[in-house]
Amino acid sequence: MQVDPQTLMILTAVGIAVxxxxxxxxxxxxxxTEQAVRLQQLxxxxxSLANTQNAMAGRMEQSQSDTNSRLExxxxxxxxxxxxxxxxTGQTLxxxxxxxxxxxxxxxxxxxxxxxxxxxxDILSNxxxxxxxxxxxxxxxxxxxxxxxxxxxxxxxxxxKRADCMLDLPxxxxxxxxxxxxxxxxxxxxxxxxxxxxxxQAGRAFGASVIKHVKDISERxxxxxxxxxxxLMFLPSEAVYAELHANFRNVxxxxxxxxVWIVSPTTLMATLNTVxxxxxxxxxxxxxxxxxxxxxxxxxxxxxxDQRVDKLQTHFDQATRDIRDIRISTDKVxxxxxxxxxxxxxxxxxxxxxxxxxxxxx
Length: 362
Known about the structure:
The protein is of the alpha/beta class and about 350 residues long. The chain has helices spanning about 5-25, 30-125, 125-145, 185-190, 195-220, 240-245, 250-255, 265-285, 290-340, 350-355; strands spanning about 150-155, 160-165, 175-180, 230-235, 260-265. It has 10 helices and 5 strands. A hairpin with a 5-residue loop joins strand 1 and strand 2 (about 160-165). It is flat, with a radius of gyration of 62 Å.
C-alpha cells in the first residue's frame, strides 16, 4: 500500500511528538525545572523579539511614510520646476522669435540698402547725374542754414557763366559763388590702384583733375567789381576732401593762390553758419539808426513823464494844504458847536463871549 507523502509527514511529526513526550516524562524533576527556565527564557526572548519586530515595523512604517512624503514633496518641486522651466522656455522662445523678426527686418533693410547703394553707384557713375547729386546736396545745405534772401541758385553772371549758388553778401566781401565739383572717377582710380606705379599715376590724374576745377572756378566766377575776390569749390564727399588735404597739399595750396577755397559738406556748413552771423550783424547795423531814433523818442517820453509827475506832485502838495486848512476850520466849527451846546440861557457873560467883535469871540 502506497502512503501519501503528506500523511507520512504527519505520522512522522506525531511520532516525534510522542517521543518528546515520553522523553519529557522519563526526564528527572531537575531537567524539567531547567527546561521550564529555558522555556521561560525562550518565551521572554520571543516576546522581546516580537517587541523589537513591532518597533522595527513601526519604524519601517514611519520611514516609509517619511519617504513617501519626501517623494511627494520632491515630485511637487520637480513639477513646479518643470512648469516654471516650461514658462521660461516659452518666454525665451517668444523673445527669440521677436528678435528673429527684428533680424529679418534688419536683413531686409540691409538688402534694400544694398540695392540703394548699387543704385547710388550707378547714379554717380554718370557725370551729369553726379553733378546733379552735388547740386542737390549743396541746395539742401544752403537752404537749411541761410534765409531765402541770402542766396541765389543758378545765378547768371555778367560773363554769361551760371553758378550753382551765389551768396548775396554786402560789400565787403560781396557776393560769393559756390560751385559743386565731384572728381569721382580719378578718386576711384586712386583708391583702386594696387601697384606703386599705378598709385603715382592715379595720384597725378586726381591732382590734375582737382586743379583744373580750381582754375575753372577762378576764371569763371571771380569777377572784379561784381563778385567777391574769392570763391568756394564744394566737394560733396568727405572722403575725397580728406584724401585731398591729407596727401595733396600742393593742390590745396594752388587753390589758396587762386583764392578758391575747397570745402566739404561739414566745412561748408560751418562756413554758412559764419555767413549767417555776418548777415545778422549787417542787418543789426542797418537798423542801428532806427534803434537810435526810437531811443531818442523814448528819452523825450521820459522827459514828458517827469514833467507830468512834477505837476502831479504839485497838485498833491496843494491838496494836502487844502485838507489841512479844512481840518483846522472843522476843528473850529466843532469847538464852537460844543460851546453853543454848553451855553446856559441867562448867562450874559458867555453870550457876550460868542458875540462877534468881542475879544472872547475873537
